[in-house]
Amino acid sequence: MPPRMEPHLRGFYFWEYQLSVHNEKFVKVDFPNTHSTRIYSRLNRIKDSFNKSTLFQKIQPIAGQIISVAEPTGRVSILDEPEVVRERRTENQVAIMTANLWHDWPRQRMLKERLGCFVQLVLHEGIDILLLQEVTRTKDFRMDEWLAEKLGMAYVYSRANGHEGGIGFEEGLAVFSRFPIEEPRIAQLSLHKNPFFRRIALGAKIKIEDQELLAYSVHLGIKGNQNELQLSRLIKWVEGQSDGLPTVIGGDFNASEKTSQIRDAQDFWFDSFRELNPDKDGFTHKILWPWGGILSRSRLDYLFLNRGKPGWKVGEARQVEIDGCPVSDHTPVLLKAFLPGK
Length: 342
Description:
Elements lengths: L3 E4 L5 E4 L1 E2 L4 E3 L2 E2 L3 H16 L4 H16 L5 E5 L13 E8 L10 H15 L3 E10 L4 H9 L2 E10 H4 L1 E9 L3 E8 L11 E9 L2 E9 L4 H18 L5 E6 L7 H9 E3 H5 L8 E4 L5 E5 L2 E6 L6 E7 L13 E6 L4
Parallel strand pairs: 5-11, 7-8, 13-14
Antiparallel strand pairs: 1-2, 3-4, 4-6, 6-9, 7-20, 8-10, 9-10, 11-12, 12-13, 14-18, 15-18, 16-17, 19-20
Helix pairs in contact: 1-2, 6-7
């Protein structure tokens, strides 16, 4: 099918077309990093101009790998209908989980075993919607497709960093759902000029019977000042398109709740775990000494809900794991809630 050009709301143009074989398409990116886009285009022009050079032909594979990693975000894979329809455990209640699945590249220690534990956890808890980070693709294994097959869910995936075709590895974000998914959307959150690394947010509209829900997965940066700017941009982006719909925002925010940016987020949104568990520590990530002792523990993973009217009715919010069956270096977070109006 020939490509179709769509104008971006800020005046930039991005390809948008359906690749039926791979179920992929490019979508408009909000807050695009124009500096990185220009560098990527310039690198491709340089590569094209040197294609006939004997010297360049010798280094072309390496050059192609470097250029592929600089490809701007915007390509998504989507399976918009769930493969398996399962009966819901509680009528009108939605179970939502966020999890950083820890790609651990290039070692990927016990990745398949950890994913097996994760599938057990999702099925045990009766999860309806998943907001995932560090979802990987390599030349031999696509985690998003594997999870979709094991769970029977609809999903949308977007690459954030790396490049499966170029270097044999990429990682990104995904939203999985037992309900139909539509209208995927991406925001570029990082403001730096490095074209080879980026932080993004991925969202989609989920159709739950006669209602609609907006769901966002996010993975913010580690550096404090950049993290603060990324979260500010995320709040602006989400609030600008909620349009009165119930909204859930989950992910690895890489900031403790003592930071000013998380406190700002708690002012805008309902921090499901903290509101229901005011006295619990809520740690979701720990760093160990080489000999196994705990160096530090932090609460980095959150599930936020918009404070709409009528509001959500949250019945449960907690960290979840299976004893003796680790999923990641982050502990997944779960909430069970009734949608507004139900």
